[in-house]
Amino acid sequence: MAASRVAISTGPKKGLSAIPVRHAPCAATETLAKGAAIITDANGRVTEAGVNPTEITGFAIHALAAAAVGTDLAYVPGAGSNVVFEGSVDNTHAGTGTIAQTDYQAEYGLTADTTGIWYVDKDKTGANARVRIVGFKDALATVMGRVYFEVLP
Question: Which helix (H) or strand (E) holds 107?
Answer without folding.
Answer: strand 107-112
